[in-house]
Write a structure and sequence with these properties.
This protein is mainly beta. It contains three helices and 26 strands.
């Protein structure tokens, strides 16, 4: 049975700035989609292709805290560097993914990689926040640098394109990311005329972002930068592309727990939020310059 489409959301009208290096369109939770409806995903910011121009100043987001969830940055164009208070650091280039587990608390900063910053050029990224269930909220912070070469790549039939599996399982092929709850995350590249068929568990909350191009999804048209929200019924998803298209397909088992969020902290209760602020101000998240 096909997974029915609940709604197709257009790109938000206006972008906002995150720091001075990310010009993003926020698809949720501030665009009519609640965090519970797309759980375990909490936030989607899409930096649609934009040329910031060359700069000797490293644009980005300076040191800030997180607790209680994970951040996932997917690079399509441009390069991003990361440093955090546990000593992890890295650079992601087009096709790569940075997966940071804030868990019990972390400080980090992310910014345009030095060489890319000096030359400038097209910059295109997606950042996701992925919730942690209560039993894992206080897990030790961690960092996964996942390169395109480390991902399982599935070549589609008839020169249809390819699927890079970041997390979860696509047609029995598995991705490298370690997750705390069942999550699927697929970077899909369809050639003109390409087709894709896959199955997602009916109970998963499922969304598809058209990063570039135009596609038909289970019989409905989705244009560039549209976000497709599926109903929680049926399993089969069919996608076809009339032109070269880039898609991000996300699904996850809902975390049916209360969500208490304030800024960079996502917990289950307001008391836990207060504790997060106290820990941050007391220096418990470490030091990062």
């Amino acid at each position: 049975m096909k997974k029915q489409i609940e709604k197709i959301y257009s790109r938000p009208l206006r972008p906002g700035m995150v720091g001075d290096g990310f010009r993003v369109f926020n698809y949720f939770p501030n665009n009519g989609l609640s965090q519970q409806r797309v759980s375990p995903f909490l936030l989607m910011d899409f930096n649609a292709e934009y040329d910031f121009g060359p700069s000797d100043h490293l644009r980005g987001v300076d040191v800030h805290p997180h607790k209680g969830f994970e951040t996932v940055t997917i690079a399509y164009k441009g390069s991003v560097a990361h440093h955090d208070s546990t000593g992890n650091s890295g650079v992601i280039n087009p096709g790569d993914v940075q997966w940071m587990t804030a868990g019990a608390g972390i400080l980090h900063k992310e910014y345009h990689e030095k060489t890319f910053s000096k030359t400038g050029g097209p910059f295109e990224m997606v950042q996701l926040w992925v919730n942690l269930p209560a039993k894992h909220k206080l897990t030790n912070p961690g960092y996964q640098a996942i390169t395109a070469g480390q991902m399982e790549k599935v070549t589609l039939a008839d020169n249809g394109g390819s699927v890079n599996i970041i997390a979860g399982s696509f047609n029995e092929h598995k991705g490298p990311a370690s997750t705390f709850t069942p999550v699927n995350m697929f970077d899909i590249r369809l050639n003109a005329g390409g087709k894709l068929t896959t199955k997602i568990p009916a109970e998963h909350n499922t969304i598809l972002l058209v990063v570039n191009g135009e596609v038909e999804v289970n019989g409905e048209k989705a244009g560039q930068h549209d976000l497709v929200l599926f109903k929680n019924d049926g399993e089969e998803i069919n996608v076809s592309a009339d032109k070269n298209s880039v898609l991000l397909l996300l699904s996850g088992e809902p975390i049916n727990e209360p969500i208490a969020q304030y800024g960079p902290f996502v917990m289950n209760t307001h008391r836990e939020l207060q504790e997060a602020f106290e820990e941050f101000h007391s220096g418990k998240f470490g030091v990062l310059e």
